[in-house]
Specification:
It contains 12 helices and 9 strands. By secondary structure, the protein is an alpha+beta fold. The strands form 4 sheets. The protein has a 3-stranded antiparallel sheet. A two-stranded antiparallel ribbon has the order 1-2. The chain starts with a helix and ends in a 23-residue tail after the last helix.
């Protein structure tokens, strides 16, 4: 069984420190402080394989996203890997991360995702699928949320939206998240954030130009990253509709990669 002492021993190991220095350079000290604080404040993470936590943290650093649960960009979450017979750290992104990465590409003029309240859908075009909305002006926060809408417009003028009702989002969550099926995890604890992330991620992966950073984010989201660079998603039967993401997920890749070019760094091996 892993403990906080196990994690501390792993991260202070000379080989680990040398590896982090090689990969992070001057960022090593701040990374060690942040990841140690994250684990120290989460008893469930302390029970996880330390290397999976380190690699998840390094993936967030490679994407230049803050690993802070309060900010909502990137997370390392405890996950019970029944196949491996151990608890591991799972890398997950929040919807804010996809907005951040999209805006960095310089191709987006506008991007947004928000909840839709009962009574705000006016009509839907049968051919184009475009939906017309009207925003409630009185007591909107008290009205039932029935779904979520994501939208973007590119600099070149191309625009697209995707609406998903709560029922479809529930079905998606239970189909592609083993933890949600079992009644716990982010889908259970924060449905709003996961719904926003899902509709935005599906919209981007279907219709938006994918930068290298965005491709990396899509393939790494909900992944367990090992020292061998293996990726296991929360549900191996990944979404058929998310075709671009499906073509990426499940392929072998280098763990620690520069998001501008493929990394050649060796994997960390403490054995």
């Amino acid at each position: 069984m892993n403990t906080l002492a196990t994690f501390n021993s792993t991260i202070t190991n000379e080989r680990t420190q040398n590896y982090l220095k090689q990969v992070l350079g001057e960022k090593r000290a701040s990374f060690v402080n942040n990841i140690t604080s994250l684990v120290s404040n989460n008893a469930m993470l302390q029970d996880c394989d330390p290397l999976t936590i380190l690699y998840a943290g390094l993936k967030a650093t490679a994407l230049d996203l803050p690993l802070d649960n309060n900010l909502g960009f990137a997370y390392v979450l405890p996950y019970n890997d029944s196949k491996a017979g151990k608890k591991v750290g799972q890398f997950q992104l929040g919807y804010k991360a996809f907005i951040q990465l999209a805006m960095r590409s310089g191709q987006f003029k506008t991007i947004n995702v928000r909840e839709v309240k009962e009574g705000e859908i006016v009509s839907e075009d049968f051919v184009s699928g475009e939906i017309q909305f009207r925003m409630l002006t009185e007591n909107r926060e008290e009205v039932k949320t029935i779904g979520y809408i994501a939208y973007f417009r590119l600099i070149n003028g191309f625009e697209k939206m995707l609406y998903m009702c709560n029922e479809k989002l529930e079905k998606h969550g239970k189909k592609f998240s083993q933890t949600y099926k079992k009644g716990y995890g982010l889908w259970k604890d924060d449905f709003d954030s996961m719904a926003r992330k899902t509709v935005l991620k599906l919209l981007l992966s279907r219709y938006a130009p994918l930068s290298v950073e965005m491709q990396t984010a899509i393939k790494s989201d909900q992944a367990i990253i090992s020292e061998k660079g293996e990726v296991y998603v929360d549900n191996q039967n990944y979404s058929d509709t998310n075709q671009k993401a499906a073509e990426i997920i499940g392929k072998a890749f280098e763990d620690i990669e520069d998001v501008k070019e493929e990394s050649k760094e060796p994997a960390l091996n403490l054995e």
